[in-house]
Amino acid sequence: MNQIQQVGQVQMVPVNKIEVINSRERNSRVFNDIVVNIKTIGLKKPIKVTKRLASDGTEKYLLVCGEGRLKAFKSLGEANIPALVVDVSDEDAFIMSLAENIARRTCRPLELLTGIRQLQERGYTPKSIAEKTGLNPHYLTGILSLLHQGEERLVVAVEKGLIPLNAALTIVGAGDDDAAVQAALQDAYESGKLRGRALMDARRVIDRRKTLGRSASRVMSRKTSDVTPSSLVRTYQNEVARQKAMVRKAEFAHQRLMFVVGALKQLLADENFVNLLRAEGLATLPKYLAERVWSGGNSV
């Protein structure tokens, strides 16, 4: 990367002359907080831009850092914004913007994680990317591996903490072998990385990956003309299989509930057992169970 030279003072730059080179979607609540904060106490930190010449010979600026603050100024109707002007190339401006966005986020959205791959495609090594973004080199290597294999759904799950990175890589290595995927989950469970709700979340992610595909995008990437009768049949069969699995789980849960209700009815018919419950202060049941065990209340 070229040596960056910063101008010694902040300049007031017209907001309509600033071009965003690495735009990203923002949480509306967080953005509204930025707007209110700037409106109340002003801009605490100037944005960062680099100067360019437009095709008509006039001055324009490329945004390096501060898209949220820039949008907030625009929404407040401001014509100018304080900006620190740096002298960098187009590529360096893009890299600086991308690296800063990635490094800033605690839980990085997929679009920023994909930016890691863009950095690698521009010739940056995983080590240099880790240095620029502040990410752990081991984590970075694993994420790059998942991204290169199109495993967007697993990448998002790893970022949200639903699946450990090592387990995600093992799942990818298992390919379409369900037994190997389940073995990866079992290993994560036995090692203590996936327990309780985390294990349920991981299974849900894997089921969605199998049914909906590896991409996390909600928009179909294929054109309508690519839809074939066989793909429709496959989609229908997958949905039928999913619905059948849900029915089986519901039936199993219902059977267990009926067993519990039956057992409680038999136990509560024993006066000695009821007296023991009262003596121990256990004379009530959750409303859901009480309504099924007896009528007229939820205590013995």
Explain what the structure shows.
GO terms for molecular function: DNA binding. One of its GO terms (cellular component) is chromosome. One of its GO terms (biological process) is chromosome segregation. InterPro entries: Chromosome_partition/occlusion, ParB/RepB/Spo0J, ParB/Sulfiredoxin_sf, ParB_N, Plasmid_RepB. With 300 residues, the chain is an alpha/beta fold. The protein folds into three domains: 1-104, Conserved hypothetical protein from pyrococcus furiosus pfu- 392566-001, ParB domain; 125-217, no CATH class; 244-293. It has helices at residues 28-41, 67-75, 90-104, 110-121, 126-133, 137-148, 152-159, 165-174, 178-190, 197-212, 229-268, 271-279, 287-293, and strands at 5-6, 11-14, 18-20, 47-53, 59-65, 80-87. Strand 4 and strand 5 (59-65) form a beta hairpin. The N and C termini lie far apart (76 Å).
